[in-house]
Design goal:
The chain is 44% helix and 17% strand. The longest helix is centred in the C-terminal third of the chain and has 33 residues, at 381-413. Strands 1, 2, 3, 4, 5, 6, 7, 8, 9, 10, 11, 12 and 13 form a 13-stranded mixed beta sheet that branches. By secondary structure, the chain is α+β, with helices and mostly antiparallel strands.
């Protein structure tokens, strides 16, 4: 009887937590729908990620990127100034948001005159001009430091319209690495000891804007073979109930049939994954086993004394307002049963919070199944299109490399013209003095 009461208390706690999560989500959504006006005091942090100040980040930009930034900001100012002149009769109806976005007319005229009469020559001049333009214009651009696996870093200027895939293409050009589908941009949060690979369709500026001013978060350019494992090895997710040994014998044709069946129809079929996971109790370092089931809309659990039928399942969390993150050393940090943990949280939550959902798996394979199946449920066909686009980029890169190699081989097969100072060898029998 006491055990039944305890489980009822746990179920009640679940309901309370879900209610609080919904309340938080609604408040975050309403905040996101508010006018996107950045206060002047906070505007500096909007343009620099991974640097102590904006001036430092501008200095790290390559010359051609800095030139592009100055030119773009100059064109934005000119466009706004001309539109303001042509529509003077409508100025009284301009909203406060538009007013804050527009620089004063006199400043625009002076800036344009200065730009035409005195073009910046040195990098210091360009940085000064860029700082002035950034203060004038309401532009969502980030200057981002991306860390490499060898400890080096690349500085990029990222526009709010750029997707992660476009940023990856820029990094491919800058690093001259292969264009493998495994490359990804990964964010790390040292305070929560978590990381997440950005999806290729995401606009990079959006998740980075959620970082706090004092954040120690970082961005890495890394190769992660598990990024598209659900498409490279679909049998692991859609035939997971079978023994692992039998899955290794699946040929490429069978894999393609699985992809066609589950991803190329009118809707994506989510893996029917289920099993026992450990749930961390709110505010405590206690983990309790629960039987969870994955559905297209979210994760559900089987309440104590209930069956696995759909009518008995209780919703644990929906996916539309949360992202999934893998963790680092939670066995020590939170006394988790294993180190194979993942969390689900809203991207705006950057510090410890009771709105974060902590789950723990028994092993690495189970973690792989759950994290990637949740991504499939959350993004559906978009994730499959990301994979196809990545495959196309990788294929094009291989074709170009192969063509360049053939051209080089053909050139090397022909005799080269001798250099101007070339001295031919003496004929046979001749003694050179």
């Amino acid at each position: 009887m006491k055990e039944t009461e305890k489980m009822d208390d746990i179920d009640a706690m679940f309901s309370d937590l879900l209610g609080e999560m919904d309340h938080l989500s609604q408040s975050l959504v309403s905040a996101a729908d508010a006018p996107d006006v950045v206060p002047a005091s906070q505007r500096k942090s909007t343009f620099s990620i991974g640097f102590t100040d904006l001036n430092e980040s501008l200095n790290e930009l390559e010359d051609h990127d800095l030139d592009a930034l100055v030119a773009d900001l100059g064109s934005n100012s000119t466009t706004k100034a001309s539109s303001g002149t042509d529509n003077q009769t409508a100025q009284s109806a301009v909203t406060q948001e538009s007013v804050t976005a527009l620089p004063p007319p006199s400043n625009n005229a002076e800036s344009s005159r200065e730009l035409n009469t005195h073009k910046p020559q040195t990098k210091a001049d360009k940085i000064k001009l860029a700082l002035e333009k950034l203060k004038e214009a309401k532009v969502r651009k980030l200057i981002v430091k991306v860390l490499m696996s060898d400890g080096s870093a690349k500085t990029l200027m990222v526009d709010e319209r750029q997707t992660v895939r476009e940023v990856l293409d820029t990094l491919f050009e800058k690093t001259h690495c292969d264009c493998s589908i495994d490359w990804t941009l990964c964010e790390t949060n040292p305070e929560l000891q978590i990381e997440r690979g950005f999806e290729d369709h995401e606009y990079l500026v959006e998740p980075l804007s959620a970082w706090t001013r004092d954040s120690e978060n970082k961005i890495y350019f890394v190769s992660r073979p598990q990024k598209y494992v659900m498409f490279k090895e679909p049998q692991l997710f859609y035939m997971w109930k079978k023994k692992k040994a039998s899955l290794k014998g699946i040929n490429e044709q069978a894999k393609q049939l699985l992809l066609k069946e589950h991803f190329e129809g009118s809707t994506v079929i989510v893996p029917d994954l289920e099993g026992t996971l450990y749930l961390k109790e709110d505010g405590k370092k206690v983990w309790k086993p629960r039987y969870f089931m994955l559905r297209a809309s979210g994760i559900y659990y089987v309440p104590k004394g209930k069956t696995k039928s759909s009518s008995d399942l209780a919703c644990f969390i929906h996916f539309e307002k949360v992202n999934i993150y893998t963790t680092n050393n939670y066995k020590q940090k939170y006394r988790a049963p294993t180190n194979f943990c993942f969390i689900l949280k809203h991207p705006c939550i950057q510090k410890e919070s009771h709105y974060i959902k902590f789950l723990c798996c028994d092993d690495q394979h189970t973690l792989l199944l759950w994290t990637n199946s949740i991504r499939t449920a959350k993004y559906g066909t978009v994730l499959y299109k990301n994979y196809q686009a990545a495959m196309k980029t990788a294929s094009s890169s291989q074709t170009l490399h192969l063509a360049a190699y053939k051209d080089k081989s053909n050139v090397d097969s022909y005799p080269h013209e001798p250099p101007p100072d070339f001295i031919p060898p003496p004929p046979p029998g001749h003694t050179q003095v």
